[in-house]
Amino acid sequence: MFQTYSDHNFNPQFYEYFHKIWCLSSLQKEYYLSNPIRIFIDGNMIQRSHVQKDVKEALLNVLYPILEEELNYNGLKVNVLGQIANMDFPIRLLVSTFFNPDGFFYIVIKRFLFLIIQIYKFQFRLILQILINCQKVQQNSKK
C-alpha cells in the first residue's frame, strides 16, 4: 500500500497540521488530536496514535537520527594532499500526508537517496584510500 510512494505531495494543509502538533505549549498525555495519526517510514508503520505527545515523540525519534547522520556527513572534513575536502551527503526526506477513509491521518516518510548515499560513502572511502596511498608514494619518493 505504501511501497511506491507515488502519492507524495507537499500540501500546505500538512504543514499547518504539523505546526499545530509541534508548537502546542501544553504537551499533556490527555491531549487528543482530532484525527488519529499513523506514521510510516520506508514502508513500515512505526506509530499509530491519537495522543499528541506520543505523535511528537515518535516523530522526534524518527527524525533525530536522520538529521544527526546528515550533520555528521556535512561535518566531515578530510585533509588530503594539503586540500581540505568538505564532503556533503544530504539526506532528504519525502513526506506524503493524507486523510484516509479509515479516519486516520497518515504521515509517510521515505528516506530519499539513502542507498545512493551508502554507495557514495563506499566510493569516497575508496577514493580517499587511493589519495592517501598517492600521498605516501610522493613522500617516499622525496626521501
Write the layout of secondary structure elements.
Elements: H1 12-23, E1 32-41, E2 44-51, H2 52-74, E3 77-80, E4 83-86, E5 92-99, E6 105-112, H3 114-142
Parallel strand pairs: 1-6
Antiparallel strand pairs: 1-2, 3-4, 5-6
Please provide a brief summary of the model.
The protein has 143 residues and is an alpha+beta fold. The protein contains three helices and six strands, in the order αββαββββα. Helix content is 45%, strand content 29%.
Q: How would you describe this structure to a colleague?
A:
InterPro entries: ATG5_UblB. Residues 36-109 form the Autophagy protein ATG5 UblB domain. It comes from Paramecium tetraurelia. The protein is α+β, with helices and mostly antiparallel strands. It has one domain (12-114). Helix content is 45%, strand content 29%. The chain is built from 3 helices and 6 strands. The protein has helices at residues 12-23, 52-74, 114-142, and strands at residues 32-41, 44-51, 77-80, 83-86, 92-99, 105-112. The strands form 2 sheets. A 4-stranded mixed beta sheet has the order 2-1-6-5, with helices on one face. It has a two-stranded antiparallel ribbon with strand order 3-4. β5 (92-99) and β6 (105-112) form a beta hairpin. The longest helix is centred in the C-terminal third of the chain and has 29 residues, at 114-142. The model is unreliable at 1-19, 21-30, 73-91 and 113-119 (pLDDT under 50).
